[in-house]
Amino acid sequence: MWEITIVIYTTVADGRNQAFRPAGIAFPKWFARGPRGLRCSAGQGRRGDREVAVTASGTPYASEPEVRTAAGVLRGGREAGLAVFRGIPYAEPPVGALRFAAPRPVRGWDGVRPALAYGPPPPQSSLLGGPQDTAGDDWLTVNVWTPEPHPAAGLPVMVWIPGGGYVSGNAGLPEYDAGHLAASGIVVVTLNYRLGIEGFALIDGAPANRGLLDQVAALQWVRDNIRAFGGDPGRVTVFGESAGGGSVAALLAMPRAAALFRRAVAQSVPGTFFSPELAADVAAACAAELGVRPTVSGLSAVDPARLPAIGDAISAKITRWRERWGQITHRPIPFAPVVDGDVLPATPWQALADGAARDVELLVGHTRDEHRLFSLIDGVLGQVTHEQTETALRMLAPGPDGARRYREAFPAADDEELYELVNADWLFRMPSLRLADAQVAGGGRAHLYELTWPAPGLGGALGACHGLDVPLVFGNLSSGQPAMLIGDPPSPAAEELSARIRTAWTAFAAHGDPGWPPYDAERRLAQLFDTPSTVTAYPEEASRLLWRDHAFAALPLLAP
């Protein structure tokens, strides 16, 4: 195999040489900008001169792995002994005639396609720090880390779904680099999917839950192609955190996802799933903000890059709709999976209790202090008022007398502790616990965990907060935004805990046993990840009793 390099450079005022892309040369949109794509090298020339060099190199890509997929040949790179392939399209860009449509299979290509750079993230909210200046519309891509890109390797596969409140998410973030996980003998895949209005708004003329359909398409790509990367398509584990954990829960309930994975890890599952009526009302509010109708034809006229700002605008004034939208105005949560009766026939809790995932092994859990990070973001950490606590208890606690029962269940808790507890229980802790209950009730197997290790970063103020599990699972303790929770430098305790969690996750993916007994309704055993870690009865008993009769149903539209 030979390399043909087009080198174009010009000398600028300070004598340096810089590359440029001249008009009239149409490079494919996937043409690499990496070390073997468009590049410049030192050259000679007077100021203002231009030189074009076309060279043919006889150096083969002997050290660069190549894999043949159903769509064509990919060339990746080597990193720390792993073969890594980035920016692989699993579906056609969902723009133009495909806007708001179900994902379509990617078209094939001729020759060898470089897979060295992450694909562009989908348009997304700026509220959680998502990227706003993205080039290209190949949003639907996957990335693969593999120890052995050979069809005979037969390694377990883990497929990561990023979180971000269904409005943000980018598999190219440094915290999701899968080098540490893959080094243990696992093929790891990370993916992007449509978000916000593009992915989850209920739009007339479009299928519901397009973001979930993207995830199904990515899993179908894994089924059809992962053997070439050294993976076993019969041993696929899907895993995700926050909205990624909610997506995993949804996939467990979706007929379209049946048989695409054997195991699932759901980290901090949010309990917010929308009824069609609520989702349609939110979509109508978004469309009204734009002055269009909530239809495919109306919204297709709007540039995709504009839509996240509309979702952010609705979030900023979401309390206007409190009498109609209810609980989602408290957090705020304008988008979530929709229980539409087709793509998602039932909530995950109902579907699993009915046996929909009894053949899928489940690992599920949450952090102890799930809401504390959001209190920091909201500016109320350490400053929660009695009125704020009363509002949270009134809106979120289960049952008509939920506020009273919370105060009775936690008699020593002050207002801030109650505020944290009811928010954490409603949004993440109890939905995660109840998913384990539903799986067992439906005849399936589940393992339960809780992360109780207090994060030392940021002065230790956040405890075992939401998102702390991400750097621990991936082992990226000093890179990526969540690493700030770990502390700099990472302590030996953090390194040890991360290794223990990675071992549990990869062992579960390999053979279904994370290292502690399955959960059942009698003993309710859970792994508590801490230093040291222990196996004990699920510790949040007071909260469990408060929520044991609550049905996590699709959230309704409160007023017509």
From TrEMBL:
PROSITE patterns: CARBOXYLESTERASE_B_1
Keywords: Hydrolase
Keyword hit for Ribonucleoprotein: no
InterPro entries: AB_hydrolase_fold (IPR029058), CarbesteraseB (IPR002018), Carboxylesterase_B_AS (IPR019826), Type-B_Carboxylest/Lipase (IPR050309)
Enzyme Commission code(s) on record: 3.1.1.-
Top class in the EC scheme: hydrolase
Domain Carboxylesterase type B: start-end pairs: 64-519
Family named by the database record: Belongs to the type-B carboxylesterase/lipase family.
Record's protein name: Carboxylic ester hydrolase
